[in-house]
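Exercise: predict the fold of this chain.
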Amino acid sequence: MPSLNRLETILQSKIILIVLSIIAFGYGIYHKLSPKQSNYREGDVTLTVTVESYQIQDNQVTIEAVAKEPLTIYGSLETEEDREIFQKLISVGDKLQVTGTLKELTNQTYPNLFSYKEYANREGKFYTMELISYQKVKSTWRSYLYRWFHKYECEYTDVYFFLNSQKLPDSFQEVNWAPFFSMYSLLLRPIRKKKKWYLYMLLLLALTTNFAPKVLALLFLFYLRTHHLSFSKSLYLTLLFRVILEPNILFTSTFFYIGIIYGTLVILIWNRIYNPIVISYLLNIMTLPIFISQNFYFHPLLFFIQPFILYAIRLGFIGVLLNTVIPFQFVLNPYFDGLTAIAKFLSDTSFLKITFAKLPVYFLILCYLCMAVFLLGVIKRKWKYIVPILSFALLHYLIPNLLPRQDVFYLDVGQGDATLIRMDHKTILIDTGGIMGIGTIEESRTKQLVSNKLIPFFRSLGISKIDYLIITHGDYDHIGGAIHFVHDFKIEKVIFNCGAFDELEQELIEFLNKKKIPYYSCIKELNISDNKLYFLNHKDYGNENDNSSVIYTEINNYKFLFMGDARAEVEQDLIEKYNLTDIDVLKVGHHGSKTSSSKSFINEIKPKYSVISAGKNNLYGHPNDSVLNNLIDSQIYRTDQDGSIMFKIKNNKLEIETCTP
């Protein structure tokens, strides 16, 4: 006991706490300021790596691995036999010799959204690898442990015990339930009660996760609690310990999130608030601003059922643990199918989502000052204290809707087209992009583009609906994302081009009818407040590209022209029929193909700025050199080089911003 008392005495000292704080935060700041460099260079290499996790989807495999530094490896498993061999042969913890091409991570090409490159660089990851071949070198103790845990197969074993959230269904990711599977959500409350059998659980998790910092931090917390240190000091010391183990976490939303949870728990325990449901709701409320700052929406139904879902996920943890000893799939499969059905139902209720635009950091700080007042009101049972945070939320919601905008965003959707226009309080989306591929891969990647980039970006601007979705024509790289948009976002009206509907357009129309969304085709003009969009191409040329809607509009006297995939014959007809001169911004036709943007057309319209939407290293060689030569007198922006390109009209001046890859 003397040693325990001595430890208690040391850790109770305020001076010791100050010194430990200086050491931990000083180390975190030093790590932040230290330059980080990769051990590798782009190109073909052969490496020996350790498998940390893997996911097979369709015929693609994604491997998270570690060599001299973390690495994400993407490969193709073309046949069912290839996939079965991989799954039987490879386990977490295995050493592999992999040959492939290293490619440097690229920047986020959408403003306001999460930058994976910045996050990965903090973690020491700089490259991805395109896998050419692999060979298993040897198994390790973790491999045998992984196989033992998978004696009775269950996808959630990887989620709970090996921290592989990639194995979660898409619907879980869409409703943001993935964090509920974290060790903090599952084990923090029992640690507060010092249940010793949780020590053995944590030791087991330390082994399965290869001593992940988040698990070691919980072990440290448990150790402090068993030494009778107060809950508040234990949490604070655990936070310092986490920073020392993982210094890159400092100055991230994760650190802020953990700090808010710890701080709220301490305040509630100090004030003898122990009800688990009340604690869960208050933690949800206190972390809500962080969630909204990253996801740009609030879902009231999802918010109210989350505490109960957390308990359901904890119960699932016990079931998965039992499944490592006895076959329990007959219970687990319907149980998790039920949770998946609930998540799917909630993700389908996107109409309930309340959109909040991205706000500066200082607004987030102001928000948490209001949250502190709210928490004080809860403790004192004085509900008038809720007024500041409700006022702030209302202001946050109204600001984007009160301020009129005049913007045009040419969005980076790879080898495709998508353009967002904001005119006053109306939003127009011209095309939706669509990532070309084979079979289900094409559909899966397009859904990810819409769900993970386009819709979050719109929400970050405070956009909760699209007033007009214009489909210039029915090629997949223009219409591919439309069904996902209609399913997950509010669309008021849809406008098609002239000519017969092709198969993709008919499929979208069938979906629009189910959703009771009105649609029109071959219109001549569209009135938007005090502006008009003119549809210039009404002739049926007998092919989908030349039947593209060609759209002209003026915003604050700046002339914009959108060409779709119209080719040279259409261009010639346009300049014969209309007086199109001195165009300020041209959306170049057909991604810069040589079939469009003829010299005579460009000489006639004289675009000041030209925007080309094309995928990086695309198979078609877009943009063609002849087109670039024709546009030599125009300032050219390209989504493959400049990312998303934004033309903002402020005080009658045109401002141009890019989001370079």
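Check your answer against the key: Residues 300-323 form the longest helix (24 residues).
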